Amino acid sequence: MQRACARWIGLAGTTGLLVTLSACATPETRVRDGLLNAGLSRPMASCMAARMVDRLSLLQLRRIGRLGDLRDEDPRQMTVDQFLHRAHALGDPEIWAVMSSSAAICAIDRRG
């Protein structure tokens, strides 16, 4: 998807550039915002969203983007474990596998 966006950016005129860029960033931005709304920190949400966009379908990404709707407590108090438990409630084993591996990798990257 990033390569396709790069081609479009190269072809876009000045007027269409902002529209083109926003169209390219939409899935990752939506996922990141959903993760933020669900209670994850900005660095963790950004890292996880970047990984998940390459591994899940658009339908799965939309479902993750709505995870903030599951929140019933203060998001600043939510741990990654609690978040993954809520993600498991989506009922999609592939989403859970990608999210849990992304959470683990991003947590390790932040410590390194």
UniProtKB/TrEMBL annotation:
Keywords (A to Z) from UniProt: Signal
Superkingdom in the source lineage: Bacteria
Cleavable signal peptide: 1-25
Protein name as it appears in the record: Uncharacterized protein
Protein's organism: Sphingomonas lacunae
Lineage: Bacteria, Pseudomonadati, Pseudomonadota, Alphaproteobacteria, Sphingomonadales
